[in-house]
Amino acid sequence: MCRRVGRRVRKIRAQMLSLSWRVNSSSIYPQTVDTPYGCGKCTNITAGGISGARYSGLYVSFAMNINDITDTILDESSSSSALQQALDAFLKQCSDASGIQSNRSFDAWAGDTLLETGVAINPQAAAHCVLDYQRSAVFIRGIYAAIETLRVRFPDTQLDILYAGCGPFATLLLPLLCKFSPGDLRIHLLDIHQRSLESVNLLMTHYGLAGNDFYTIQGDACHYQHDVNLHLIIAETMQKSLEQEPQFAVTANLAPQLGPRGIFIPQRIEISLCLADLDDESTIYGKSPRVDPNLAEMEARRFPIETIFTLSPSQVSEQLRTVQKNSHSNTLELDLTVVKIPPIKDMARFDAALFTRITVFGPYLLQDYESEITLPQKCQELAPLAGGERYRISYQLGSYPRFNFERLGNP
Predict the structure, then answer these.
(1) Residues in CB range of 217: below 8 A, 6 or more apart
(2) For 281, left (φ over 0), alpha (ψ -120 to 50), or beta?
(3) Do residues 94 and 100 touch, judged by C-beta distance below 8 A?
(4) For residue 335, which phi and psi values (nearest 5 degrees)?
């Protein structure tokens, strides 16, 4: 079974789109290039005016310390080039201190862990996620806002925080620790790879943060049980359209361990099925900072069909109770909905695609094309499209989570 799953993972990864990044005055958006990892090496940046050294295709300033890095990320007026510089500096410092170099090569796949609930990517691959700039910045800002919200809700209380799947650099939380005093937070860093936890321990010392109340735990976030209710849970273990990685299983296991008025990050993940002119969107995306889904709908370049799945901590327990076994594939699945393909003009121009939108916390969102994990996922099973065709949609659980489509025909 592991060999079969491993081969499928490799095949899918070989087809995945990764990102290089283009500087824009207000934010950072990806351009697609072929690499095996979603947060892969960025090579096509012109970082004009940035003082520093070239690192993995990026300019890195050696002058930035952890406080500079954090301040730049949290400052919402920071330019995209400033955000790039801060995150590049963080990656280089972490890599130098820990000895873990981000690796996008096919050889890196061998270090992944194939779980019964999905794939846990290895430390070198996880390190690349720093370079998904908009993703990193939005999550860090959202988590900081969540912690500040909890400090108001629970004054004079040491907050218990669990960061599941923290990876080798604890990227979404470690930069924030310089903003708090030792004793403000009790931090639990959970990862299935011991090498990642060893790296985090080194980095806490490297950045002078070892005085914080923190613990590293080797374990599977899909089964981990904490001994007390938690104020904040951070769990970003996903790819676009919730495929491959175990975000659903992690959320289902950890959300019930959140205390009253606690916060789960991300708060909400929505998967929508649309008919979209992906070639046209790709062209627009290559010329402009983003693809506006509302404008695409108004111009009849995208036709929303249905939000087929929403993952949130408040809904996941009920969803888990509806899991059933597929009699044909013998896999567990969530039976979601039946959709009908609308009869639209020039149907051959369009693809059925899944779009992912993420609410990290409050106003901190990741929209279409803003990150590797919000790129569209083409639904090959629905091609060629035919108006009036009906499909049953389910979400497959187990070792390779994904959405499945069963053709029901034209009534």
Answers:
(1) 188, 189, 190, 191, 197, 224
(2) alpha
(3) yes
(4) -85, 110
Task: Tokens 């609308």: give the residue.
Answer: 342
Q: Using the predicted structure, report yes or no on whether residue 46 has a pLDDT greater than 80.
A: no
Alpha-carbon torsion 128, 372, 189, 60, what sign?
positive
For residue 143, CA distances in Å to 120, 172, 360, 361 come to 22, 8, 8, 7
pLDDT at position 198: 98
8-state DSSP, 237: -
Tell me the pTM. 0.85
pLDDT of residue 47 exceeding 90, the answer is: no
Encode pLDDT of 390-408 as tens digits. Answer: 999 999 999 999 999 999 9
Nearest to 234 by CA among 177, 298, 164: 164
Helices (H), 175-263: 194-206, 247-254
Asked, as a colleague might, if the bond just before 266 is cis with ω within 30 of 0, I would say yes
Q: What is the radius of gyration, based on Cα positions, of the chain?
A: 21
Cβ neighbours of residue 234 closer than 8 Å, sequence gap 6 or more: 143, 161, 162, 163, 164, 172, 173, 265
Average pLDDT over residues 344-371: 95
- At 266, the amino acid letter reads P
Give the span between the Cα atoms of 256 and 180, in whole angstroms.
Answer: 27
